[in-house]
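Example 3.2
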Amino acid sequence: MRTQQFNIAIAQSTIDWIGKKVTGAHNGTIRLKAGELSLADGQITAGRFVVDTTSIKILDITDPATNAQFAGHLASDDFFGIEQYPEACFEITSVQDNHIKGDLTIKGITDPVAFEVKTRLNDDTLTVTGTIVIDRTKFGIKFRSGNFFRDLGDTLIYNDFELNILLTAKAVEVPAQAQI
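Structure, written as tokens:
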């Protein structure tokens, strides 16, 4: 069995987010901070990545003042509480074919998530793409959730949000003795 270790290339990896509400949606980006993946015979077997919650950006609001206000609200305890929780983390717990299960930690709360990925291995570069759908209320993010508040009308924010991931990772040279 051939095993390989990969470090996620932060500058070449992206996470795009989409949050929806009754009257529309917002989208943006958030950066990775670190990560690694393990492969055995070309299949992902383990991995972990850390997200820098302080890097959240909103792309669909072009007015600078409105964008800053919304970014401040996402950073607040109503949403991600980035002052206290500057990182979120995902750790793979199992992989079957291209179906990944793992533990996602946001705001210090860990909950299992599962999603499909597509992988491509080209020499020493591994590319992984997928979409993770997350129920924000499982991580204590209840602001304007219909599960916790009544009569929100058109101010309701849907519980699920999406993270569209593109991970690019580079192979790590492992000494020959370590592969035995």
